[in-house]
Design brief:
Elements: H1 3-7, H2 10-30, H3 37-69, H4 71-92, H5 98-105, H6 108-120, H7 126-143, H8 148-152, H9 158-176, H10 185-209, H11 218-246, H12 248-251, H13 257-270, H14 276-292
Helix pairs in contact: 2-11, 2-13, 3-4, 3-10, 3-11, 4-9, 4-10, 5-9, 6-9, 7-14
Length: 304
């Protein structure tokens, strides 16, 4: 497959995004006791900005007038999708479990639909609504490990509240991408990553002064390098392009692949056991995504 073909396949782009974001969730939980959350978020985006800048410089010069003309929307997107979302997730992971996080993030497609209706009066077909419901059932089947009593036993804590705020922030980011500046993708990434890091800089300084410094040992360097290159640069490039092709409403159900990929990574990397509920949940999620994606783009009301 050529790069052009990959660039024009929204569901492949979004699948890659969800795989990389699953890795981000695992890393964030794994290092929650070693790295301060705002420090991890700041260095993630600052490093990603420096890398993207190497490829975006000539595009930025040409796109600067368009970026400046949409500076308000650009700042809002950077605040919601770059600074707020990831910082809230990393902070929430200090006080909640990966299972709770996956369950709470599973409602994001529904929140995207609500925000899309609130801002643009977008509506869904019955098939899309059914598809989202079916894929959500698949998520719940996986996180409950086939036992509804386990899901009922989940308890919310302050960390879960932060995850819910993160979900709301990213839902607004996804929908507001519709009004993003019409510039080269590298220019957009450089601008939002740079603004996001700038927003986080004073918060990182305050965190450091409060007694939570960012110590750059081997764990910190490898963690920052991974989250900067893959869940940041590559994932956001793929996500933004996928939403541009099919809109936020139709892209939203793909977020239900995160628990699928998170389980697969845990089985592959952490030696966890493959069980029937993994396979059953995966099948149900794919069925729901298939249903939700059958609607023609024009009928979705999304013109991202």
């Amino acid at each position: 497959m050529s790069g052009r073909q990959f660039y024009d396949r929204p569901y492949l782009l979004l699948s890659v995004t969800m795989l990389l974001w699953s890795g981000n969730l695992i890393v964030g939980r794994a290092v929650h006791a070693d790295l301060p959350p705002i420090g991890l978020a700041f260095w993630r985006w600052f490093m990603a900005f420096l890398v993207v800048l190497l490829f975006a410089r000539r595009h930025l010069r040409a796109d600067w007038p368009a970026l400046r003309a949409r500076s308000g929307r650009l700042f809002l997107l950077s605040l919601l999708g770059i600074a707020a979302f990831n910082t809230l997730v990393y902070t929430g992971l200090h006080d909640t479990t990966a299972i709770n996080t996956v369950v709470l993030q599973a409602i994001m497609p529904v929140v995207i639909l609500a925000v899309s209706f609130l801002l643009y009066r977008d509506t869904l077909s019955l098939r899309q609504t059914a598809g989202i419901g079916v894929s959500l059932l698949g998520v719940l089947l996986m996180v409950a490990r086939g036992d509804p009593a386990l899901l009922a036993a989940l308890r919310l804590n302050p960390g879960d509240g932060l995850i819910l705020l993160a979900v709301l922030a990213y839902a607004f980011y996804s929908v507001l991408l519709r009004g993003a500046p019409a510039v080269h993708p590298m220019s957009f990434l450089a601008a939002t990553f740079g603004l996001g890091a700038a927003i986080l800089a004073p918060m990182h300084a305050a965190e450091w002064l409060s007694g939570a410094p960012m110590v750059f040992d081997r764990t910190a360097f490898l963690s920052v390098a991974y989250v900067a290159l893959f869940p940041s640069i590559l994932a956001y490039f793929c996500f933004n392009r996928g939403v541009a092709l099919i809109g936020a409403n139709r892209a939203g159900p793909m977020l239900h692949l995160v628990p699928v990929f998170t389980s697969a990574l845990a089985i592959t990397l952490l030696g966890e056991t493959l069980a029937w509920f993994h396979l059953a949940g995966f099948a149900v999620i794919l069925t729901g995504i298939w249903l939700a994606s059958r609607q023609a783009p024009a009928a979705a009301g999304d013109g991202a």
